[in-house]
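Consider the tokenized backbone below.
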């Protein structure tokens, strides 16, 4: 997957070559695939610096993605390689703020930020990273132009997709519904020509991963257009039998 991996001053950069099957019908990289690249780059950085998933799991802990924000100046095309840099910006008690720089064709075309939490796999509760790795000094000061992703307000969807069940192929290593699948399911219900036109691209996306979904649970995605901003869509995924509990939410700006 990676063309190269290099690290300097606690900032890791990885190169990616988008394959045709990773592009959407517009020959552009989808937000779900970009988010997958971001998460993969974060994993590489964590592993190289001694706090990766395998290290945490040996201590009966793991990482959980809580929020993610992406801002792009233009679409990511599939004709040239993509370079993603990542670093830990700040540690706040039980959460960690990680940031990213996205570049293509020798141009910085976007930034992303994410909030992670380490969890105790037996108690299913968050823990302070300083308790797991008391001697780690991993924070980096690096100039960027994106704020930490915030909690999204609730909304009432006016259109729903078809219900679906969490199966084997959509589960992650924590036995939860895979975070990237949430994104794919939400974008699948958007009106194609209106929300995802050939000439457009996602300028900003903010995602909240609120609750776990487990194998066999039945979920459904819904969305509505913002009442004021014609370019903003609010999307969410809930359990079919528990529609008031939002498992995942995303604000998408086209």
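A designed sequence for it:
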């Amino acid at each position: 997957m990676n063309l190269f991996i290099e690290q300097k001053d606690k900032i890791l950069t990885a190169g990616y070559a988008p394959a045709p099957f990773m592009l959407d019908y517009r020959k552009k990289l989808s937000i779900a695939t970009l988010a997958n690249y971001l998460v993969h780059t974060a994993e590489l950085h964590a592993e190289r610096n001694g706090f990766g998933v395998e290290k945490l799991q040996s201590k009966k802990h793991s990482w959980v993605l809580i929020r993610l924000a992406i801002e792009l100046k233009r679409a990511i095309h599939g004709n040239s390689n993509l370079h993603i840099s990542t670093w830990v910006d700040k540690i706040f008690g039980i959460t960690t703020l990680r940031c990213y720089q996205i570049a293509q064709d020798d141009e910085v075309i976007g930034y992303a930020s994410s909030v992670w939490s380490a969890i105790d796999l037996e108690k299913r509760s968050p823990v302070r990273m300083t308790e797991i790795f008391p001697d780690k000094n991993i924070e980096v000061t690096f100039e960027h132009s994106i704020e930490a992703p915030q909690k999204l307000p609730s909304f009432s969807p006016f259109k729903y997709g078809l219900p679906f069940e969490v199966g084997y192929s959509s589960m992650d290593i924590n036995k939860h519904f895979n975070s990237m699948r949430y994104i794919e399911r939400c974008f699948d219900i958007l009106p194609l020509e209106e929300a995802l036109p050939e000439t457009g691209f996602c300028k900003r996306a903010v995602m909240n991963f609120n609750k776990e979904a487990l194998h066999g649970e039945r979920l459904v995605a819904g969305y509505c257009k913002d009442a004021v901003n014609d370019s903003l869509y609010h999307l969410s995924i809930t359990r079919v039998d528990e529609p008031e509990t939002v498992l995942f939410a995303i604000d998408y700006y086209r």
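DSSP finds five helices and 13 strands in the chain.
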